[in-house]
Structure formats: structure tokens, C-alpha cells
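Appendix B, Record 12. Input sequence as logged:
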Amino acid sequence: QHTWIISDLEKARQNRKKVPWLVIVGHRPMYCSSRLFDKRCLSEAPKYRTFLEDVFLKFQVDVYLCGHNHQYERSYPVYQGESMKSYVRPNSTVYIVNGAAGSIEPIDPTFLKDSLVSWRAAHGSGFRTGFMVMKPARRTLDFVYVESGTGEVVDRFTLIK
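Logged structural output:
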């Protein structure tokens, strides 16, 4: 799998003028801060980062989008735990956990304290499901996270090249 992803990212890099945004979709989080599923976030996620974070940096992956945890959470652009608090020409990847899309078994409303996760920019709250809308353009990539039951916009941000 590692060889395959390197090969695929190399092809994507060669096509960046035509397709400027590079979004990778996976299953398990690489950055997360669930208290309920703390093993996933404190033990498993760092292991995945050791295999992929340098690769993402090398190929300038813009966003890593995953599920697994039944919650919504977004990072600032982050590399090795150090975050850049701006989405304007970031030099690292934004990580999004969007696993709150359907089943409520269980939606996880628990998160580590902000002081413990300086890389976290936003997270959902409560036992609510939601969905994300992504709108790409040549120089911007807009994201909106919407709560399903109410239609309320819970989070929004824009990456700018």
C-alpha cells in the first residue's frame, strides 16, 4: 500500500497545474482528540502518522479526510503536531474527521481539552449527525460542515493557494 500511495501521489503531483487540490480520503484518523475513543487518538493515530505524514508533506497534500470516529473535528494545517494557524498558502495538511454522517451508535461528543491539542481548529458538539460540503475552485477550497437535523452551519473554512 505504501508503494501504491507514493506512486499515485507522484502522478497527482504531475497533474497539479490542472487539478490544484490534493485531497486524500482514508478511514482512520491521523489527528483526533476523542476522549471516548482515546486509544484511537493517542495510540493508533500517531502510528499512522509515522507512515504517512512525511509523505503528505513531500507531495503537498492539502487535506486528509476520514471517518472512523463518529464525530466532526478539523485541524489547522499541521505537521508533526505543530500547527500553522492560517489557511492561506499552508505548508502542511489539514486533517478532518467527519464520521458523524449517519448512525448515532455512538456519536462521540467528547474531546480532549483545547490546551492539550493546539493543532485542533474546530469540532462538533453533542449527539448530532452532520455532513460536509466541499467546493473547489482554482485558488480556493471551501468547506462547510452542516448539522443534519437543524441545517445549522457548525463549521466553515477556506484553504487559499
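The beta strands are 23-25, 63-66, 72-75, 78-79, 82-83, 94-98, 120-123, 130-136, 140-147, 153-160.
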